[in-house]
Amino acid sequence: MAPVKALVSILRGLPGRFYDLTWRRVRLLGAAALLARDTVVRMVTPPVAFSEVIRQLELLAVNSTTLTAVIALFTGMVLALQSTFALEEFGAKLYMGEVVAISLVRELGPVLTALMGGGGVGAGITAELGSMMVTEQVDALRSLGADPIRKLVVPRVWALLVGLPLLTVLADVVGILGGMLISLWEVGLGPAFYFRHALRLLDYSDFFSGFGKSFFFAFDIALIACLNGFRAEGGADGVGRVTTETVVAVAISVLVLDFFLTKLFLAL
The pTM is what? Predict the structure, then answer.
């Protein structure tokens, strides 16, 4: 009887848990919307701490170049390798360059950069702001009359808005070079032949489609990271919890946002 009573107790508690979970998500969406509004207003109104923006740009973007380049290089190599074997069945392996270039520039470049580089950057922002929250440094800023959003959020948002698109361009270039290495080693195509085919079908719309997505991804990552950082409470456990939530939320939101942005850019 004890297992039955436990099961009945769990089933009775499900509606309440579902309500709490739903209400918590609605409150988070509301808080995110308010933070986005306040951040945009402060981004376009003076003063803007350009020195802090430069410092955050170095911390968030420059320090992520190695990771981005390594991921893009092997992504381009794997994509070229798989494309070669798939196209070989149709006698079209010479067109491998087109597949690699379009896939990287339109989708894989911006998405992988946002997921890997942006996810790590977002976790770092959340951990930093969360530590400031639990040690009451943010409250100290408010007591001194400073605006935490202008001081802490705006520089990080500007840094990601500048840095993530540049990292995306780096990923595109390095990924195409990775495909060139596979075309040279596995297929025997010369670099001139590969680049001529890789750039033949690429259009400005392809580049700006992927490049434009990176701005939306950057704002999304910065907003989620800062929001979760300001939600930290309860010491080190709370900081670790919101940092984990940031990584998960960034991954889900980037993929969902990518779908809708792809539909939008294809419609345009």
Answer: 0.86
